[in-house]
Amino acid sequence: MFHFKKESRIAFLSLLPTVIAVFIFVYGFILWTLRVSFSDWIGVMPNYTFAGFSNYSDIFKSERFQIDLWNTLFFTILFLFTCVIGGLLLAIFLDRKLRGGSIFRNIFLFPMAVSFVVTGVAWRWIFNPGMPGSLNGINQLLSNIGLSCLTWGWFTQSNHFMNFHVALISLIIAAAWQLTGYTMAMYLAGLTAIPVEMKEAARMDGASEFQMYRNVILPMLQPITLSVLIILVHISLKIFDLVYTMTGPGPGFATDVPGINMFETTFGGNRYGEGAAISIVMFILVAVVIIPYLINTMKRENI
């Protein structure tokens, strides 16, 4: 008994510095940001004069922030769809034990090894449309293979359909390129864990390959799908580095997101109160997704 208590004290003392650091540099700064969001801090010098909800009112009245919310919505939906469907199809392809599967698996996983900054720089060059007569990137490739009719402005486009800016397509492709491999790895782990006997039993019952995946395999992958969706939504809601290095706010804020808006408002415009308010809104959006998932996970573990 004494030996157990001694080990517990050692474990507690080992974790204590990390716990203190998390409370100070995570939760402490969240509370400080919340306080600043209710202040009248404009300019370099701190000003904690209470301003009520005026900062929140100002950002929600701002046309730029409204565009940011629409951009985040469309980006999240299309990003999730592309990553989940693409990752699932790649996982099914690799699960069939084809020759060279390990090579393809490494190729698909490679984008995970680079940061969003590197991805943004690379895809900025790829989608750089160039000028008429001096095309760049993918436009030059399309022109060289005789598909000049498909060249367009990519992330420099300011066109939009209702509230969807077509320039977001470039960002979605770049983000999906980096994280589809992660989704594939998650689904591949789930597929390899499904007993072969279960698949053979479904085939013996007369189920086609499509029916087997729809009625047997996919329902068993639901926990993985939920985890993938939660992680990808979390990434999409707080995305910053990819957008900052690849497109910035874009023409008419076509590729703007709350993270870019917060950065420019805070450090470019010195409107710290409004910047903090944008940060808190982003925090709430992420919390709305993460907290129910964590509660549900803890309930399942207790059961």
Brief sketch in words of this structure:
The protein has helices spanning 2-37, 54-61, 63-95, 101-109, 116-126, 137-144, 168-193, 196-204, 209-220, 222-237, 241-246, 258-268, 272-302, and strands spanning 130-131, 134-135, 160-161, 164-165. It is mainly α and 303 residues long. Helix 8 (196-204) packs antiparallel against helix 9.
Q: What does this 3D model show about the protein?
A:
This protein is an all-alpha fold and 303 residues long. The protein has a domain at 62-250: Orthogonal Bundle (MetI-like fold). The protein contains 13 helices and four strands. It has helices at residues 2-37, 54-61, 63-95, 101-109, 116-126, 137-144, 168-193, 196-204, 209-220, 222-237, 241-246, 258-268, 272-302, and strands at residues 130-131, 134-135, 160-161, 164-165. Strand 1 (130-131) and strand 2 form a beta hairpin. Helix 3 (63-95) packs parallel to helix 7 (168-193). The longest helix is centred in the N-terminal third of the chain and has 36 residues, at 2-37. It starts with a helix and ends with a helix. 30% of the residues are buried.
